[in-house]
Every structure is written in C-alpha cells, then in structure tokens.
Amino acid sequence: MVQYCRVRSVAEAVDELSRWGTEGRVLAGGTDVMPQCLRGEQAPAALIDIGGIEGMQGISEVGGVTSIGALVTMRRLATASLIALRHPALSQAAAAVGAWQTQTVATLGGNICSAATTADTLPALLVADAQLTLVSKSGRRRVGLDEFLEGPGTTALRPTELLRAVELEPLGERSAEGYLKVARRSAMDLAVVGLALRLDVAPSGVIDGVRIAMCGGDRSAHRVPSAESALLGAQLSDEPGAFAEAGAALADAVGPVASVEMRYRRRVLPGLFDRLTRRCCAEISGAGA
Fold first, then answer.
1. CA distance 113 to 108
2. Which domains are seen in the chain, by residue range?
3. Are 282 and 251 in contact (CB under 8 A)?
4. N or C, which terminus of the chain has less Cβ within 10 Å?
C-alpha cells in the first residue's frame, strides 16, 4: 500500500524526502505521476503531496531577475502579465501544454522534473538561462537547467531534494523571444517538435546574442549551438543568409533519420524556425532596433 504524506511547508517536505529517499515520489499537480502509477511505470512506497506549500506558488521580480515558484501552474504562467512581458516564450509554451484542464493543475516544477522529451516549457526555460534552486535537509544548491537535464526522464535531482524555485534572465530592450511547436493533431497534443528562440540585437542591427533550444524526439530538451553560431554576428536584415543556415543546422541536429517521425521532424524544423525568426525580427524592428 502506498503511503500518502501531505506536507504544509518546505521543511516538512524535505523531512519526508529524507525519510523515504528513493522510495518516495513528490506529488504536485499529478498530471505525470498519477498516470505513471496507474500504468505501473512507477511504484513508490510514498507519495509526498507538496501542493499545499504556499511559499512555492509565487511569481516575482527582484533585482532584474524573475523568480517563479515550482508550484506555479501552467495556466498562471500562460496568463500572468509579468511572464508575458518578460518571458513571452515561457508564456506561449505554458499555453501549449494540453487543454486548460491540464494547465490548471500541471506545475512548472513537475514539467521540469519529469524531463519528458516533449515538455513544452523546457526549451523556453533554456533560452532564458533558467537557474534552479534545489533544497534538502543538507541545505540548498543552484544548478542551471542545462546541467539539470541529463537525458529523457533523467535529471540531476537527488532523491532527498526538492525543486523549490526557478530564476530566469529577462529580455533586454532590443531583444525578442518566442516558442512554437508542431503536434500531430492540435496544440493540445504532445510536441512532435518544439522550438524556442531568443534574439538580442545591437543598435547597429547585428545579432549579438542568440539562444535556440528544442524538444521532441529521443532527447530531452537542449540548446543547439551549431544553429546559434550561424546567427551570431549576422545582421538582423540578413535574408535568407544566416537564417537559412541556422535552419539547416537545426534540421541536422535532429540526427540520423531512422524513422518516419524523425524525417518529419527534420523536414518541419526549418519552416518552424523561419516563422519564429520572422516574428522575433518584426518585434525587434518595431521596437526600434
């Protein structure tokens, strides 16, 4: 029989995690954990329900850094004005996570810790250089999301640790970002491929910062340095030039076309990237870049 443990504070949560170790499983929104338990993919001895911890449900801006509690839901991320203004890619990604019924309970922390290859928020978080705060009875540590994601369904989270909050780097004055995905039938489906882009442009029109991240396939979400390098230093008005080169690099990053789905992903990525870059370039040009 599974032991159900409802906690009301971070201190209580880490106590239970320390007690149960690898036999315990954190329960927040439950959109990942409960289906896995029902399918027999997970068989924890204890479910540690952290949904009532109020200190992990906030969104704030301090010293230019956005801090988001791990229990903030997808729906709140999709509708919060602070997120839409400072992190539009994350707002768009959260809005793409299933239907509104899922969005009202699914949490950012759950989406991160599941490390699913189709997790929409992960590319958006990667282009914002997300830094995670992990806590345990031994203290706390910070780790970048790129280091935290070790592979499909695998992270650097220790059995006794709890993801408490996520900190993001906001957009600059001459910057733009966005998220787009391709799914089999609709936006409510899991992503066949998801793509996030952040562009930083100097007053001269030169792209002096670029981050590109993708999800989908057989890898966890990751940045694509080859595509980033193709755009860095290019002029914003360079059409097709560096933008076409970056799109081709994205397609190459898919890897060997060993399946129909991989071939499809490789084919649609350049077009998806073109849509996203045009949107970002228009926003930057409209802002006077």
1. 9
2. 1-52 (3.30.43.10), 175-286 (3.30.390.50)
3. no
4. N
- Which residues sit opposite 155 in a β-bridge? 149
State which amino acid sits at residue 75: R
CB-based contact 141:63 (threshold 8 Å) = no
For the entire predicted model, the pTM comes to 0.92
Angle, helices 260-286 vs 241-253, to 10°: value is 150
State how far the alpha carbon of 266 is from the alpha carbons of 165, 183, 256, 258, in Å: 34, 14, 9, 11
CB 84, CB 77: distance < 8 Å: no
143: β partners: 132
Tokens for 160, please give them: 């006794």
What are the angstrom distances between the C-alpha of 153 and each of 10, 69, 230, 253, 276?
Answer: 24, 21, 30, 20, 27
Both tokens of 32, joined, read 């990942």
